[in-house]
Amino acid sequence: MKRVKRQTGKRKRPAGGGSGGAGNTTGRTGAGVLRRKTPRTRQARGSSIGRGAAMQDIDRSIRRRIFDVYRAPLHREAVEEIIDRYEGSRSRVIAMMQDIQDAFGYLPEGDLRLLSEEIGLPLNRIYGIATFYKAFRLMPRGRHEIKLCTGTACHVRGAEAVRDALTRELGIGEGETTADLRYSFETVHCLGCCGLAPVVMIDDDIHGKVGYSVEEILEKYR
Amino acid sequence: MKLRSFAGLDRYQREIQRSRPPDRYVVAVCTDSGCRACGSAGVYEAFVNELARRRLSSSVDVKATGCHGFCEKGALVVIHPPRILYTQVKPEDVPEIITKTLQKGTVVDRLLYRDPHSGERIVNESEVPFYRKQRRIIFGDNTRIDPEDIRDYIALDGYQALRRALENFTPQRVIREIIRSGLRGRGGGGFPAGIKWRSARKAKGESTYVICNADEGDPGAFMDRSICEGNPHSVLEGMVIGAYAVGAPKGYIYVRDEYPLAVEVLAKAIDDARACGFLGRNILGNGFSFDISIVRGGGAFVCGESTALMASLEGRAGEPRAKYIHTVERGLWNQPTVLNNVETWANVPRIILNGAEWFASMGTGDVSDDPWGGSTGTKLFSLVGKICNTGLVEVPMGMTLREIIFDIGGGIPNGKRFKAVQTGGPSGGCLPESKLDLPVDFDRLTAAGSMMGSGGMIVMDEDTCMVDVARYFIDFLKEESCGKCLPCREGLRALLEILTRITGGEGKMSDLKLLEELSETIVETSLCALGGSAPNPVLSTLRYFRDEYVAHIRDKRCPAGVCKKLVTYRVVDDTCTGCHACVPACPVDCIGGAVREVHVIDQSKCVKCGACYEACRFDAIER
After folding, report:
1. Which of B62, B163, B457, B489 has the most CB atoms around it within 10 Å of its CB?
2. Interface of B with A in 433-492 (CB under 8 A)
3. What distance in Å separates the CA atoms of residue B33 and residue B199, rounded to the nearest whole number?
């Protein structure tokens, strides 16, 4: 499986937004890998073809329908329920997106399209919010989220060494996910436990006074 | 239980107090994030289970409380009424504590705090040096309150300030009281809260809003989180009083995304307050109506800025706007809006309950005519970094840095020398040893080139490189700049480039002048306070630690041994005993040499992590 890289950079434009038609898309497989390069032309929503099918031999029209799978909402009912929770109020769009992410771990493109249509907010505004705020991600994450605190207290107490140790141990850089989808690694600014610096948070557990050897901590998370 | 009158509140309070005889044991276990990481959840459970097993549950209360402050020694347990403090408690210590303290009335010696200087064991929490010099008016109740139980707060005169305001004060009188107290915004700006309220009351609009800013983004600061998680009702009460003063029907608490527990605790507190009649329609039967919603932030530092926060509340990207019209006139949805931070709101009930004079008697300056005339009350600081007693401290304004760092904080660990203290978050400044006798208040910190900020206080010792610290903060701020205005977006990038060059040993002497010029431009031309104060770390380190910059540029040397490109680790042949201690410590296995022979570091493989330097007991590794 390919390494999944998080989209970084706040002001980056969507990669290749609207440039190519359906023809220039190569066959990348794998569940949950989001394509930004979606064709402009649209077909009927809700194709029944499952995700993850081998794409090489599929003819163009079917391929286009597979992209519609990505564009179609993945979790229609759940998203609709979230929208109802906030009475469809446009000013609560951030809260809705947070709830979607809490439910599915990331913001699937199709669900954002549904959200956009339902509350009548242009997709580009939603994309703008999703890339402005650090909390949002457009890519699925690993089973365990590793957050290294690089707040000031952790920085002066050696967070850099822990960062080196983690990248070495995991073999991935910040904002990336390991190939086996076991870990995602990112750095955050201050988890608010400065007394225990340097701190690493894995899922919801906080590990304080972390040293150079991080293997033992990582081993606990399968 | 819905309270519909002032007398009802009194009755309810008496009822709660009666059900809790003063000599009944209360075990307060700190279950804040910090102590939780030290296993305090297990300690709490052990108390509950063990007491149930011994059938003592009915005679002893166990409370899971918010932060007590002394995070260094977690997990903390305080036993009332004598206020015995046990530090670093493990679940297996619990049966002994129950037998000795709760059943026999003696203390468990080994769990008491030990004074590092005299070696004496200290029993009472208030006599521990860390607590002795503090004045904990906001934070003190944390050891007595279960944040999820509103009755604990009511028992300690909770919501009595609200009652007093609604019953005896007009809204104007509340505002006058806050102005006379000299309360200044604890979020960083230091703007007098009362004056803000008065302007909002005067401003015209269809509706008025009050907002609590709990978007505590400063790395190294966690006092607002600890208030929200430890004593949420004090914040709510302050907001209701503020709403009454400015005539607002609706309030918001904007909580940082990284604080899920704070959201949970606040949400429960709001529900409870609504159920008791402190929020909602017709509060305490007085006719005033007000309600609060929680909004979670999205993880953007700039949203701590008032206009950016309001943009975020409206469901937009959090970009600030120019403030030629203040937010008190046109804030949220273009309506008059009062925004104060958590600590400011938590101060309000204390002022209303104890009077403005009481509050103004603490601190510096004279605020009787002009709230800008001084800094009154107390301030919470998160004392972290290279310091013995990390934790949260609450001290009266005007205490000197030396008292805070050495008397309360216990000085620098491992016999190292103090180098600097960084106050005010990323856009604050670093103050050197010569400024240690500076009394800490809003105006004097600003005059010294730093600022109060929200109250982060990061202590640095001789092993901290000041150029690297400046680079770190600029890197942080560059990441967090929203990108709306050019000076901040591009200026910080340029500053970072120069600083990275210097820490990489490629700086030029002319860079120093360039840094200063660039900083000045950013300060003067940025749109919001983030950019306006962003170069502070550079300017203050240039002002007080210029020699370190020069060492990096001219001598290609990092005096603290932090900047990796300027550091090499070598084994000193004469002192190396060949003890092998450094070999397993090295994460990349680049240290060779047999036992009892001089070791060698393979420079081509060395990642300069410093693990060997710390592992060596003979100072045989130099850098």
Report:
1. B457
2. 456, 458, 460, 464, 469, 472-473, 476, 480, 482-483
3. 38
Instruction: Give chain B's mean pLDDT.
Output: 90
The fraction of chain B above a pLDDT of 70, given in percent, is 100
Q: Is B294 on the interface with A (CB under 8 A)?
A: no
Cβ-based neighbour number of residue A70 at 10 Å: 18
pLDDT of B500 > 90? The answer is yes
CB B53 within 8 A of CB B76: no
**For B16, phi and psi rounded to 5 degrees?**
-65, -45
Question: Which of B33, B316, B588 has the CB atom closest to A192's CB atom?
Answer: B33
Q: In this predicted model, what pLDDT tens digit does every residue of B464-485 receive, in sequence order?
A: 999 999 998 999 899 889 889 9
Chain A residues whose beta carbon lies within 8 Å of the beta carbon of residue B585: 212
pLDDT, averaged across chain A: 73
- CA-nearest of B530, B454, B529 to B227 is B454
Residue-wise pLDDT tens digits, B225-261: 999 999 999 999 999 999 999 999 999 999 988 888 8
CA atoms of B236 and B197, how far apart (whole Å): 17
Q: What is the pTM of this model?
A: 0.83
List Cβ neighbours of B378 (8 Å cut-off, separation of 6 or more): B135, B136, B137, B138, B362, B363, B394, B395, B396, B397
Burial category of B367 from C-beta neighbours within 10 Å (exposed 0-12, middle 13-18, buried 19 and up): buried
